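cache lookup: miss for this entity combination. No prior model stored, computing from scratch. Input as submitted by user K.M.:
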Amino acid sequence: MQLDFTARELTVKLVYYGPALSGKTTNLQAIHKLVHADASGRLMTLETRDDRTLFFDLLPLSFQAGAGLSVRLKLFTVPGQVIHDATRRLVLQGADGVVFVADSQRAETRANQRAFLNMKENLRENGMQPERVPLVIQFNKRDLPDIRTDDEIDALSQKSPEPVYKAIATRGTGVVETFLGLMDRTWLHLEKEHGLEQKFDLEPSRFLKEVRHRLGFTRRGES
Amino acid sequence: MTQGQTSAIDLTLGDLARLEEVVDREALSDVCRSFFELFGLSIRVLSKDGTLLADVHQEREICQYVNRLPAGAAACARTVAQVKTATPDGAPVLLPCFTGGRYRVEPIRYQGRQVGRFVIGPYLPAETRAVPRSLLEIDPGVVDDDALRALAEMPRVRPETAGRLAAHFRKVVDLLLFSSHRAHLTSEMHVASVREGYRELAEKTANLQQAYNRLKELDKLKSNFLATVSHELRTPLTSIIGYSEMLEAGIAGDLAGEQREFVETIRRKGDHLLALITSLLDLSKLEQGALRLQREPLSPKALLDEIVTTFMPRAREKSVSISVDAADDLPAVDGDPVRLRQVLSNLADNAMKFTPEGGSIMLRAVETDLVGGEDGEMGMVLMAAARPAIRFEVADSGAGMKQEELTRIFDAFYQVDGSSTREHGGAGLGLSIVKRLVNAHEGEIHVTSEVDVGTTFSVTLPAVETDL
Ligand SMILES: Nc1nc2c(ncn2[C@@H]2O[C@H](COP(=O)(O)OP(=O)(O)OP(=O)(O)O)[C@@H](O)[C@H]2O)c(=O)[nH]1
Ligand SMILES: Nc1ncnc2c1ncn2[C@@H]1O[C@H](COP(=O)(O)OP(=O)(O)OP(=O)(O)O)[C@@H](O)[C@H]1O
Ligand SMILES: [Mg+2]
Ligand SMILES: [Mg+2]
C-alpha cells in the first residue's frame, strides 16, 4: 500500500496468483470489460508468448472514494508457468491482497496445490506472513467437464478460513464477486493495520459501497 | 511514502514516477508538430513540476505588436508566467490574455494521477469582432487599426471545438504514455527478473553447500556413534551366541539334560537380545531423522508377494494360511523398497505371532486417495484435495485387541499384556518403527481390531503420480 497523505491518495496492490493457464489474465480482461470506463485505465500486458504471461498483466483502476480520498487500485497477474518463479516473486512484492485462481479441472488438482505452496513460499521469501495476507480463492473454469464438484467445494469451503468463489472467467461469471470479495478483505485488513477510518474519516462499509458504485458494480456481490 | 527512487519506474506498483523520464520527447514533439500543422494552434507539454517537454508554437503578430510597447511587453510577460504556472486540478483551465486571446491548460492524467499538463493557445474565441478594451488600455501606444489587423491573423476557435481538440490530443498523449510506460516496465522487469533469478540461484547454491557440509559432518558423527555402539554391543553378543551354538552342537563334548536346556536358553535369549539391539538402533536412527528415503516406483503386488514368500515357511509350520489379494495393474507406490519391506514384514510378523493354528492372514493392496489439509488451515479447499494412493492391509484372524489398546500399541515398548509378551517375545518396538516409517513416507496407518476375531492394520501411502 502506498499512502500519500497530503494528496489524500491511496494506492492498493492486488495480485492474481495461480497455476499456469488457470485464467488469471482472463480474470483481468473480464474486469476490464465490466468496469466503468471512467474508472479504468488501459489493460497493460507485459510480454506474452503464445498467450502465456511472461512478466505480468496490469489493470489500473482509480476513483474518488468520497471524503476527498483518491483511490488507485493496481491489479496484477503473475506468470503461472513454473519456470517464471523469480518473476512471480517480484510481482508478489508489496501485495496488499491476493486472489488465488485455481483451475477446477480434476486433473489440475496437484498443479493447484503446487502453485499454492509456491505462493506461500514466495510470500515468506518476500518477508510476509502468508496467514496474514488477505486472500480469496477462486475455482475457475466451472464450465468444463471433469471438474471438482460444487458439493465437494461447498463442503470444504465451510471449513476454509478464506472465502471461496466459483467462476467462469471467459464469460465474466463470478469475476466481479471474487474481486469485490478480495477488496472487502483487503480494506478491512488495511483499516486494521493503518487505521484508515480515522485518517480519512471513512467508515469501512461506506468505503466498500463507494468502491462498488464508482466501479459500476453496484448490484453485484452485495451478499 | 514513496520508496527511494532512482529508477523512473516503481516496479512494485508498476507506477510511472516522472513523466519526463519515461516519455520519448522526440515522439512527443512529433505529435505536437502534427497537431500544430493540422489546426494551426501552438501547443506545449509540461511535466508536473513545470519542465517543458515539448513546444511547438508560432509567435503571433499581435504578440510581436504588443511586445514592441513597454507596458505591453510587461503585461505579456505576466500572462505567460500565469499560463506557465497554471495547475488545472481535474478540469481544464481557461486563461484569458489582455489581447483577447485565450490559453487552454489541460491536465494530463495517467493511471489515476496527474502527471503533467498541456497548453493550447493563444487563440481567439470565434465570436471576437473588435479590439478588446483590455488591449486598448494596456499601453498608450496601442493603435486600434493596427491592433485589429494583427489580431486578424490569430486563429479563431469555438469553445466546443477547443474541447474536442484537447480531448483528441489527450488521447494521443495517453497512448504515447501507455506505450512508453509499457516499454519501460518491460525492460525493467526483464532486468529485475534476471537479477532475482540470479540472486535466488546464488543463495540456493550457498545454502546447499552449507547444508551439505553440515550434513556431512553430522552424518559422520552420527554414523560413528551408531557404528560404535552397534559394533561394541553386537561383537561380544555374536560371540556369546556363537559359543552357545557350538556348545549346543556338542563340539565341546556331549551335554547332559539340564546343561543342554540351559545352553539353549542362553542361545535363545541371545538371539532376542540381538534382535532388540537391532530394533533399538533402527528406532534411534529414525528419531534422529537420520533416515533418508530412497524412493522409487514399486509394484504393490510384487511387494506383498515377496512378504508371503518370506513368511510361508513359518505359516506352514504353524498351520496358518497366508495369501495375497492385489491386482497386477495397481499404480506404483512411491516408496523406499527397503523401508516398505520393513513395514510390511513387521505387520506380517505381528499377524503371524498373534494368530493361532488354523487361522488365516490376508495381505491386500487397493487403490485409494490420500486426503491432506487440516480444517481451518490456510488454503485447505485446495490442499484437502485427494491425491492417488495405495492402501495396504494386513488382516489376521487372531487374538485381536480391545479398543482402548489401539492407540497405545504404536508407543515404543508398549505390549498389550505381560503374559502375551512372555508367550511371544518381542520388545514392543515393531509398531513404533512402522509408524515412523509410514510418516516419513507422508502416509497414514490405522488399525481396527476385535477381540478373538482378528486385527487389520492398514497403511496408506502415496502412489506415483502419472500427471507429472
Ligand atoms: N473453459 C474455460 N476456459 C477458460 C476459463 N478461463 C480461462 N480460460 C481459458 O484458459 C486459457 C488460459 O487462460 P489465461 O487467462 O491466459 O491463463 P493464465 O492464468 O493467465 O495463464 P499464464 O499466463 O500462463 O499463467 C485461455 O485459453 C482461456 O480462454 C473458463 O472459465 N472456462
Ligand atoms: N496383529 C495383532 N494382533 C493382536 N495384537 C497385536 C497385533 N499386532 C500388534 N499387537 C499388539 O501390539 C503390541 C505391540 O506390537 P509391536 O509390534 O510394537 O511389538 P511386538 O510385536 O510385541 O515386539 P517387536 O515387534 O518389537 O518384536 C504387541 O505386543 C501386541 O500386544
Ligand atoms: Mg496470464
Ligand atoms: Mg512386532
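stored under new cache key. The longest strand of chain B covers residues 113-125.
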